[in-house]
Amino acid sequence: MTPPRLTTFGESLLRLATPTAEPIETTDTLDVHVGGAEGNVAVAAQRLGLEATWVSKLPATPVGEKVTTAYRTHGVDPAVVWDERDDARLGTYYLEAGAAPRGSQVIYDRADSSITTATFAELPTDPFTDADAVHVSGITPALSATLVETTKEILSTAQESGATTIFDVNYRSNLWDPESARETLTAILSDVDVLFVAHRDAEAVLEYDGDAETVAADLHADFDLGLVVVTTGEEGALAFDGERSAHQPVFETETVDAIGTGDAFVGGFLAAWLTDESIPAALEQSAATAALKRTIGGDAATIRPGMVESILAGDVDEISR
Questions:
Q1: Per-residue b/e over 194-203, b at no fewer than 16 CB within 10 Å?
Q2: Which residue numbers delimit the Carbohydrate kinase PfkB domain (predicted)?
Q3: What would the pLDDT profile of 85-142 be if each residue is shown by its tens digit?
Q4: What is the pLDDT of residues 250-288, one digit of tens each?
């Protein structure tokens, strides 16, 4: 049987990270990884059994090609518009890993990257119209006014074509303020079937009060959503489909690299739920995928189904690849 087809759309960046404990200002070495929310979701979902395509716009340079090569390594199909402008650029971010009491620091350099100019008209449409599900995060419309319109057109086109549309609020305060985000996101949610949102973002950005179950039920009703998944940090996550709710605690893990954990959670959930697993089973897989990601360096969850199965079986001392 052909696996479900998932398409994601969004920005990818180069992550330049210092070796552990070294400040940016003194290090002579930077480790390079490819990262980005929607790409991370595609990687986790692909590695757990879906057919994933990542759509974006990249500079037509070796730097842009590095991104597509990285995704192909994980089996993800990059469907990319190449930016031929002389000043085309890929966003980057610098990560200075810290340890208590000195926290980690992230410095972005992503302004005017190629993705910010991506219009729906120039993107390939087949990945959206032929997919079983299409995923975008709130990071994408936060990057430019152009991407607000592109995101809306992608979701409405996908929904009209019969795809399940998935949106992760994924609020970033360094990209926009809560009021601007709320205005844009509430307009986008009319074309969304499945919503992922952190409880803190539901409160601070969307202005929904109450516990996770109350927030999920209210969002479900107000935006006519098919499914709402609310993450609650160390308390785990809750999903509500209009009739019943399911809760999943986190799996304990030693954190090596937390970046990309939320994306791994979404990818793990979709890999199970889109293959007709129950919501509780999908939540369980998503929690295990997120826990595994925290043990892996880089942005992407470089995992295999056997590793997730070992976590779910409680065989944490003999994780199978």
A1: bbbbbbebbe
A2: 9-299
A3: 999 999 999 999 877 788 888 999 999 999 999 999 999 999 999 999 999 999 999 9
A4: 999 998 999 999 999 999 999 999 999 999 999 999 999
Alpha-carbon separation of residue 5 from 49, 78, 255, 279 (angstroms)? 10, 13, 31, 19
For the chain, the domains span 5-312
CATH 3.40.50.300 assigned to domain 5-312? The reply is no
Provide the annotated active-site residues: 263
- Which long-range contacts does 231-236 make (Cβ < 8 Å, 24+ apart)? 231/196, 231/197, 231/198, 231/199, 231/262, 231/265, 232/198, 232/199, 233/198, 233/199, 233/200, 236/287
Strands (E), 48-181: 51-59, 77-83, 92-96, 105-109, 133-137, 164-168
Residue-wise pLDDT for 162-221, tens only, equals 999 999 999 999 999 999 999 999 999 999 999 999 999 999 999 999 999 999 999 999
Residues present in the chain in total: 321
